[in-house]
């Protein structure tokens, strides 16, 4: 577990180690089958897999990268202009271009297991069944890592989480536990998932009111609360940016007074949370059909 956090070279060596990833997955599967999702060894295994999934998309061996990204290279990109929010808008544009992964292998080996639906379902199972905070956080964190990029792999994983494995109820439950790091990671995962336009209606229906409930009534105090609040605002921004229906849902969940209060944080106008809330407010105002409702 310690070695797996030793940086890119360490991750590369461990991913290439014959049988290591397969053994970790095998152990966790056994623990879940034996109804023992809370033991320390399972926590260690999940934390190792979490670390090995970090930067996976950019650190994949060339042979995998070529197979996975061949379709993407052949997709024309006509939109070269960044929007008014710079790189974030460009990422939003990129999410339209998700192309499916090649057909999934029924019996993955080694590094292939890291993004395979079998392991994605294992993470979701641990999120639902484990009461150990480190195990919950590492499972959420692994999914956050796998959905972090802009290529076809993150979007294929996102579709598996939301549509194929019905993972949103388990993730939603993590928004309501008291452990701040688990909550922060769950919100960051939802922020990644919400970038995929084809999943936004499902996500909004399942978790938008819960995301609003995560927002504090005023400016967050601690650093981790500030990070969580900023990620929540950006997830809501993704869900409401092109959907007046979702913006109305945010309004009826009581989100607007909270977002205004966070954006008007006088003590630190340039905090991450304050900036994120301001970006969200600006976006919400673009739904002109809701102006009267906002004013009320």
TrEMBL record:
InterPro entries, A to Z: ARM-like, ARM-type_fold, Armadillo, Plakophilin/d_Catenin
Keyword Repeat: yes
Gene3D superfamilies recorded: Leucine-rich Repeat Variant (1.25.10.10)
Any one cellular-component term (Gene Ontology): nucleus
Keywords: Cell adhesion, Cell junction, Repeat
Any one biological process term the GO annotation gives: protein localization to plasma membrane
Residue ranges with Polar residues bias: 71-80
Residues in the signal sequence: none
Keyword Cell cycle in record: no
Localization of this protein: Cell junction
Biased composition (Basic and acidic residues): 94-107
Primary residence: other
Region (Disordered): 71-109
Coiled-coil segments on the chain, per record: none
Family according to the record: Belongs to the beta-catenin family.
PANTHER family, per the entry: PLAKOPHILIN-2, PLAKOPHILLIN-RELATED
Protein name from the UniProt record: PKP2 protein
């Amino acid at each position: 577990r310690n070695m797996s956090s030793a940086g890119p070279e360490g991750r590369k060596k461990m991913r290439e180690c014959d049988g290591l990833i397969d053994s970790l997955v095998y152990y966790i599967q056994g623990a879940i089958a034996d109804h023992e999702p809370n033991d320390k060894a399972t926590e260690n295994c999940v934390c190792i897999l979490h670390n090995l999934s970090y930067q996976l998309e950019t650190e994949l061996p060339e042979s995998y990268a070529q197979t996975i990204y061949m379709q993407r290279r052949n997709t024309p990109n006509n939109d070269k202009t960044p929007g008014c929010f710079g790189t974030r808008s460009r990422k939003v544009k990129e999410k339209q271009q998700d192309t499916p992964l090649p057909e999934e292998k029924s019996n993955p080996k080694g590094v292939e297991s890291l993004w395979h639906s079998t392991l994605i379902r294992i993470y979701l199972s641990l999120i639902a069944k484990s009461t150990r905070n480190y195990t919950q956080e590492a499972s959420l964190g692994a999914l956050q890592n796998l959905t972090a990029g802009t290529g076809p792999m993150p979007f294929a994983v996102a579709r598996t989480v939301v549509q194929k494995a019905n993972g949103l109820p388990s993730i939603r439950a993590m928004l309501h536990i008291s452990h701040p790091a688990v909550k922060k990671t769950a919100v960051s995962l939802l922020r990644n998932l919400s970038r995929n336009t084809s999943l936004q209606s499902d996500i909004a229906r399942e978790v938008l009111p819960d995301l609003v409930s995560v927002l504090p009534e005023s400016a967050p105090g601690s650093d981790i609360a500030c990070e969580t609040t900023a990620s929540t605002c950006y997830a809501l921004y993704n869900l409401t940016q092109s959907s007046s229906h979702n913006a109305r849902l945010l309004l009826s969940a009581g989100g607007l007074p909270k977002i205004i209060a966070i954006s008007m944080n006088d003590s630190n106008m340039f905090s991450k949370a304050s900036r994120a809330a301001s970006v969200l407010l600006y976006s919400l105002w673009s739904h002109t059909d809701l102006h009267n409702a906002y004013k009320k």
